[in-house]
Amino acid sequence: MFDTMTMTKATGAVCGALLVLLLGGWAASSLYNTEPPGGGHGEEVAQAYTIDTGAAAGGEETAEVVDIAALMAAADPAKGEKVFNKCKACHKLNGIDGTGPHLNGVVDREIASIAGFAYSSSMAEHAGTPWSPEALDAFLKAPKAFASNTKMSFAGLPKQDERINLIAYLQQQN
Questions:
Q1: Is residue 60 part of a domain?
Q2: Can you give the CATH number for the domain in which 109 is found?
Q3: How far is residue 84's CA from residue 158's CA, in Å, rounded to a whole number?
Q4: Do residues 93 and 103 touch, judged by C-beta distance below 8 A?
Q5: S-S: 111 plus which of 22, 84, 126, 148, CB 3.0-4.6 Å?
């Protein structure tokens, strides 16, 4: 079954396939080369065009100053109750802790002050600081940015009006 001619054909097929693979790779790299001329060594090559992303040059970001008190005056607690539906899976308003601590009375209550609830170490570092509307706004925007290892897996509320309405609703629950 395996004679000299069969082995020659098999070896020729393997060598031919390897040759096609090598020539295909060489052709593709010459057609779709992304390296600068000279193999990426030597002088710097100027960018052909630049896409303006709106980011400030130099990496400096100006923090937007938000007047929370003015926003709170215009907040709608009824809309905040609808936003609270996102929180109901983990937080309760009846004084009983769920997966997260209960939220009745949270506005102006000290951070990490519910007895018996196991807070993360980064939340415990904020203990003694009140949950002011400003602190709640910062936490609700990005919980992981406020407390890096918080147990709260919720990504946050990116919309300012949702956060303010939720805080106004929670303030009514005091």
A1: no
A2: 1.10.760.10
A3: 14
A4: yes
A5: 126
Give the span between the Cα atoms of 130 and 112, in whole angstroms: 9
Provide the domain count of the chain.
1
pLDDT tens for the chain, 174 residues long, are 678 999 999 999 999 999 999 999 999 888 877 666 665 555 665 666 677 776 665 555 555 677 888 888 889 999 999 999 989 889 999 888 888 999 989 999 999 998 888 888 888 898 899 999 999 999 999 998 888 888 888 888 999 999 999 999 999 987
Using an 8 Å Cβ cutoff, are 167 and 75 in contact?
Answer: yes
Of residues 117, 174, 108, the one with CA closest to residue 150: 117
- pTM as predicted: 0.62
Task: Judge residue 125's burial from the number of C-beta atoms within 10 Å of its C-beta, 0-12 exposed, 13-18 middle, 19 or more buried.
Answer: middle
Rounded Cα distance between 92 and 109, Å, is 16
130 — phi, psi (to 5°)? -80, 155
Is residue 157 within 8 A of residue 83, CB to CB? The reply is yes
Do residues 146 and 139 touch, judged by C-beta distance below 8 A? yes
Are 111 and 126 in contact, with CB atoms under 8 Å apart? yes
Residue 24 lies in a domain: no
Q: Give the CA-trace dihedral at 75, 63, 148, 124, to 10 degrees.
A: -60
